[in-house]
Amino acid sequence: MRLPSGQADEPRLRYAGTAMKIIAIKSFPVWAGHRNLFVLKIESDDGSYGYGEAGLSGRELAVQGAIDHFRRFLIGEDPRRIGALWQRVYRSQYFEGGRVLTAALSAIDIALHDLVARSLGVPVYQLLGGKQRDRVPCFVTTTTQPGPGVVDEAERLVAAGWTCIRTGIGYPAVDEPYEGDGRPDPVFDPRVSMAHTAEWIVKVREAVGRRAALGIDYHHRLSVGEAASFCQSMPAGTLDFLEEPIRDETPEAYDALQRMTPVPMAIGEEFASKWQFRPYLERGISAYARLDICNVGGFTEAMKVVGMCEAHYIDLMPHNPLGPVSTAACIHLAAATPLFAWLEERSPELGFDFDSELFPVQPKLDGVTHRVPDTPGLGVEFNEDAPAVKKAFEFWENPHLRRSDGSHTNW
What we know:
Elements: H1 10-17, E1 22-31, E2 36-44, E3 49-54, H2 60-74, H3 82-90, H4 99-120, E4 135-141, H5 148-159, E5 164-167, H6 190-208, E6 213-217, H7 224-232, E7 241-243, H8 251-260, E8 265-267, H9 274-282, E9 288-289, H10 293-296, H11 298-311, E10 315-316, H12 324-335, E11 343-344, E12 369-371, H13 387-391
Parallel strand pairs: 4-5, 4-11, 5-6, 6-7, 7-8, 8-9, 9-10
Antiparallel strand pairs: 1-2, 2-3, 4-12
Helix pairs in contact: 2-4, 3-4, 5-6, 7-8, 9-11
């Protein structure tokens, strides 16, 4: 293809007429200070490259095994055929989907978008329909256990300009670890936690008034009855959202819970496909879609969920507990999304200020928002030669919680 004289444009020439091939797919399960991150790099034969991230925290080696398998048939493919490659990876086995496979697919898809956008000299959001906002609003999570300190912290955060605050849940029952079988595990008693946490959330609301939206993440540790009781124990209007109070496998359970309380639900961080989102969006169970781009299938699947959210007037509220690649991907997704609430921002927390030697270019919070970048690709760089990469993976496991009777419960 020839362009008219004076309109030479190398990226467009390459895209239109020159073949591109994937020549390398590199996995980096790397210890990043408080737990592992899984970073993926895809390289093409024209020198372009892109980064992705998988979100299955604590099971990075399982994701690496899937990547190693997919690599065998992705090498040599054209990285610009992102949608076709997504389908090929997803449908390449009889047993489709599942969080391990979609976490691997997410990293691949995000990296392909980054690679193609870099090759064209445009930000990733241009591949998604273009920018719809200049800044991405964020919410912050308190780092203090429910008690007098959380009220003080919430007031400081509001004074600093935060307009949405999420609190943690109380662990007042953790006096001694459970050692019934000789192995110490932390104890979590739902009813004790609920009573303690509700008391202090009410005080936080009284302190900050309506200056900020207020929510809480119960990390799917409650039953339907417990979650309903928790909501009913606080005055109406205390919470603007309740995140993941129960497990998400059964939409009917959330239907039952929603009939017992008017508190809006924020659900979806565990979903690994548009099909898992579908009943929650169609039934109006979820008021905020907690989509995790590093688990749901990358940009390709996320944009389909975004369309479903728009059809049901449900705001996107991305789950973002990972590293800089995840944050960058969320920023570009937010930029191209019509209905958006807040992006989860963890950088004020201990362990989420990622080493600049490991990530020499990474998103940085600007006040209480992220500016949408105009640089090519995602706007993140990863240093493969950093000492942390050589140290690589360290075994890390979530706490294994017990109830006071010795039974296992969710972390």
